[in-house]
Design the sequence.
């Protein structure tokens, strides 16, 4: 059973991205929407027959707090960088699918290069569920932004790769159960 959607009204104008095209559009004050997904660092909203993605930093536009996922990365203090990076990746979502990009099997590889200042450059190879997905740049930007919030990360790069092509066999068992596959 699908949980009920929460109705919200924009209390200030905000720029959203259309899903799955990724084109930006400003929604004015008073726009009514329904939250379909509030995972990771953004909100997926249903507005006038269209899905849109609202960045978590603009959560106040719909009277919501900034998602914990955004504030957690910035407060991380040392520790195992590899574990922090994978935890951060598990907080990134495709706006159309309520499963994080790691459990969806979109992350193919993560590499770390130490820098002179003690921090590291992190390079992520990932794919999309469909090569033509318009949300690819938004997902990659979300990954980079969140990785750069980790104090031990000097630089972050996401490489979109399509070899091997993604298929459902890459989804974790738990994610497959959640999605009813």
Sequence:
């Amino acid at each position: 059973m699908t949980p009920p959607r929460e109705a919200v009204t924009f209390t200030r104008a905000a720029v959203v991205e259309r899903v799955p095209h990724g084109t930006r559009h400003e929604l004015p004050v008073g726009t009514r929407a329904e939250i379909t997904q509030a995972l990771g660092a953004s909100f997926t909203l249903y507005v006038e027959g269209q899905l849109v993605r609202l960045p978590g930093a603009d959560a106040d536009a719909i009277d919501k707090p900034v998602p914990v996922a955004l504030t957690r990365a910035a407060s991380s203090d040392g520790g195992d960088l590899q574990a922090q990076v994978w935890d951060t990746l598990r907080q990134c979502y495709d706006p159309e699918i309520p499963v994080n990009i790691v459990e969806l099997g979109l992350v193919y590889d993560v590499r770390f290069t130490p820098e002179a200042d003690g921090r590291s450059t992190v390079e992520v190879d990932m794919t999309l569920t469909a090569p033509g997905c318009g949300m690819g740049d938004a997902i990659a930007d979300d990954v980079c932004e969140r990785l750069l919030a980790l104090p031990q990360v000097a630089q972050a790069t996401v490489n979109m790769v399509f070899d091997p092509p993604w298929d459902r066999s890459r989804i974790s068992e738990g994610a497959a159960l959640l999605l009813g596959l």
User: Anything to note?
Assistant: The radius of gyration is 17 Å.
